[in-house]
Design brief:
single chain, about 350 residues, alpha+beta, 2 domains, three-stranded antiparallel β-sheet, two-stranded antiparallel ribbon, 9 helices, rod-shaped
């Protein structure tokens, strides 16, 4: 299958001499440049652009345009003749051509060779003087001719051109095809203070062409009237997760000046007392002690009595004594202390998942 990633490579270097962004046969003006937030994987698109979401969603769902290798879609860049051929080819399912293109300049074709050959065999591109001129920009009236052939349409009388302020400026050879494009709804014109404008001999941007192709493919070729309809892609927000190492904490009493204490407590309920060893050993007093010497002895006895008399009511109550580095009697406070870590799945943003869209009433 021909990839329009290949189609897009040459477009990166195209510098079209004739680009008019003022109006569009596709029926909308280009939005002014803005800071972009990535849309559907393209960093140069955001929801402020006129082609988002309808035209871009359609092109994605029909695999017509994948974008450039650098991740851009380049909606406002001028489109070239070989890009037009490749996008039509992609949207048609990228069928294999019956043979190579026979244009006199076919040797210039690389990534677009299959698409150009297929379009030539379908009569979509006939060339000028047997020349494809693949890298040349294409005008809006030339696009109308290409899409009319692709749709199997026929030229119409040029009465429809009278509705456009610049209808008289359409080239003589293109009046019938531009009339077909206007009457079929492929071209709507751009609304300006002077009236609706075709700008038939101006250049065409990538987004403008895809908009016209969308109306041709899903409208004219499918025998549908898309007026009052919009293309809406199915999409669902999916939360992304990642594994992270998360610290474990617990609340502990952290002494201001830890020191060795004698801890006598009940094995069932934990009631007991901490007595600093230096108080026991040297008989000294501590100003912040709950019990000061000789009261610490009474505290000790209180704890032992509690245990001995099973004051908590536990049948398996027994005295436990241990030497610990702990000093609730000398000041401190409760703090969250790191005691380990564990791996936890946490939310890490998310992404849109898209499904096949459909046309709905606007």
């Amino acid at each position: 299958m021909t990839s329009n990633v290949r189609e897009d490579k040459r477009a990166m270097g195209v510098r079209a001499a004739s680009v008019a962004v003022a109006a569009m046969l596709a029926g909308a003006l280009c939005a002014p440049a803005a800071a972009h937030a990535e849309y559907r994987g393209h960093q140069d698109l955001d929801e402020g652009h006129w082609a988002v979401p309808e035209v871009i969603d359609w092109s994605k769902d029909h695999r017509a345009v994948n974008g450039f290798p650098d991740g851009s879609w380049a909606p406002d860049a001028p489109i070239t003749r070989e890009q037009v051929a490749t996008i039509i080819h992609n949207a048609s399912g990228a069928p294999a051509p019956a043979g190579p293109a026979t244009f006199a300049d076919a040797g210039q074709l690389t990534w677009s060779a299959d698409a150009v050959a297929w379009c030539q065999q379908q009569g979509i591109f006939t060339g000028s003087g047997n020349l494809m001129m693949p890298a040349d920009p294409i005008t809006r009236e030339q696009v109308a001719k290409v899409l009319m052939v692709y749709a199997g349409g026929a030229e119409a009388d040029d009465a429809a051109l009278a509705a456009f302020a610049d209808g008289a400026e359409v080239s003589g050879w293109a009046r019938g095809v531009c009339s077909w494009a206007a009457r079929s709804g492929v071209v709507k014109g751009a609304q300006t203070p002077a009236g609706a404008m075709l700008m038939a001999q101006a250049g065409c941007t990538r987004a403008e062409f895809v908009a016209m192709l969308m109306r041709t493919s899903d409208g004219v070729r499918a025998g549908r009237d898309l007026s009052g309809m919009r293309y809406e892609a199915a999409r669902e927000w999916v939360v992304d997760y990642e594994d992270r190492v998360v610290d474990d904490y617990e609340d502990r009493w952290v002494a201001a000046s830890p020191e060795e204490c004698y801890h006598n407590y009940c094995s069932a309920c934990g009631e007991g007392v901490y007595i600093p060893m230096r108080v026991i050993m040297d008989g000294g007093g501590l100003p912040n002690c709950k019990y000061t010497y000789p009261e610490h002895w009474r505290a000790w006895q209180d704890g032992l009595h509690h245990i001995e008399t099973h004051a908590c009511g536990a049948a398996d109550c027994r005295a436990v004594a241990e030497i610990v580095v702990h000093a609730p009697t000398v000041g401190g406070g409760w703090e969250s202390v790191k005691v380990g870590s564990h791996v936890e799945r946490v939310e890490a943003g998310g992404h849109w998942e898209y499904g096949q869209g459909s046309w709905v009433r606007a």
